[in-house]
Design goal:
The complex is a heterodimer. Chain A is of the alpha/beta class. Chain A has helices at 42-50, 71-78, 96-106, 112-125, 141-153, 171-186, 198-204, 222-227, 232-242, and strands at 3-12, 15-24, 31-35, 57-62, 65-66, 81-84, 159-163, 190-194, 207-212, 215-221. In chain A, helix 3 (96-106) runs parallel beside helix 5. The longest helix of chain A is centred in the last third of the chain and has 16 residues, at 171-186. By secondary structure, chain B is mainly α. Chain B has a single domain (43-245), classed as MetI-like fold, CATH 1.10.3720. Chain B is 80% helix and 0% strand. Chain B is built from ten helices and no strands. Chain B has helices spanning 5-29, 36-41, 43-76, 80-95, 98-112, 118-143, 147-155, 160-190, 202-213, 220-245. In chain B, helix 3 packs across helix 6 (118-143) and helix 8 runs antiparallel to helix 10 (220-245). The chains are: A alpha/beta, B mainly alpha. Chains A and B meet through helix 3 of A and helix 7 and helix 8 of B.
Amino acid sequence: MKLETRQVTKNYGGFLALDGTTFQTGNDARVVALLGPSGGGKSTLLRVLGGLLLPESGEVVVNDQPLPHDPQGALKSLRKNGFVFQGYNLFPHLSALQNIVLPLCAVHGYSEPMAKERALELLQRLGLAEHHHKRPAELSGGQQQRAAIARALAPKPDLLLLDEPTSALDPVMTGEVLDVIRELAEGGQQIVLATHEISFARKVADWIVFLAKGRVEESFPSEQFFQKPTSALAQEYLHGLSRYR
Amino acid sequence: MTNRPAHRLLWSFALVLVVSLGLYVMFAAVHYTWNWSSVWSYRTQFVRGWLTTLGISLGAMVVSIVVGFALMIGRRSTCTPVHLLSTGIVEILRGSPLLVQLLLGYYIVATALHVGDPLVVGTVLLGCFEGAYLAEIFRGAVESIGASQREAARAVGFDTAQTYRYVIIPQAVRRALPGTTGQMVSLIKDSSLLSVIGIEELVQKVRIMNSSSYTALEGYLPLAVAYLIVTIPLSWYARKLERRFAYET
């Protein structure tokens, strides 16, 4: 995939989350990691790239196709993507299975038996087969996040966008979820990942976008970024994160 | 706190006993001579009034839920005239006395529209009045569903209507239930005001009986019981529903 933004701004009641953000990845990036300090605009950029948020100005181009600016067009294009959030955001009134089946039927035109088959196949793959009937509150954080990944994967999305998927998890559960993401990446799924898991990004991502204060400071192939970050902010960030690990 | 059924039953009996004793002492203290025979002779009228109250209440409940839902949607609309109109209707219906609404609604509006049946007019007016309260209960419930759920709904591709249908309303129903039950109980009691447009519901029947048989208080005890026969099961059923919808968030 190729991701590109030109002069994108996004404003939350006076706070500029994206401030003329401009970057471009290589033509065939497979796993793009968004790195940078908290509050730097990672989550907002991820939502803008996936079509979940409409920017106030600027262009977002995915695989040489500019994303539509009208809400209807944006909804149509975001349906091709899958999203996973930091707080899982499963629907609490539905079981794990129903969380996956409902969007397949209501949005993607699956029949109920087909949707169930697809959902069960994914839950099986993510090690949740025996938990399919449970509601989110009955699942651990790691299980909830895996169910959320299953929900995002079910309609076979072009892009899987994950917003700090392990930030709310303990180290064991973080490991569970990162294993799943790595397997997906190795299986060829195109992924955009906002994360603080720097060593995971180093292993799995092939392109790094580094943001701070709403601007992209660096956009380089992974190896290049980790060997020689050019900006002072990125150097400081990497140094700070590697101090204890 | 223990929740064993036998334990609860025992406490209920004890409390009923104590309260009844207290009431008996008070009633005995005022030396009121009860004349129950006149009440008994009015029993068919009493039952007829009770059925009227039930019918009006059921009809008005349906109307109030429809009106409440529509006003809630209107209050949340981004279209300015719709928002203003709905807000105005809610404020006027909630802020002015039901008595005035019934009198103006029946003698002016319904007459102008050539609707003569006081039962129909009364049911609709009562439903609108309670609907205004329900609109705010519903709005509170809908707005308590967090931004992250709305975002998740959009992320899986739901449009606005689907977001309401599959995500917001199922979760909001549970949060609106306790308030809605209270409002339904109020509605049943508020139906007594419909006597002002000539409907002989339960309270009116008791008034007629009291004035024709020169009794003062006899009718009011069965009256309270007749309301409680409806309102207590309603509350009980609502609690059962709440438990059915219960899930942790």
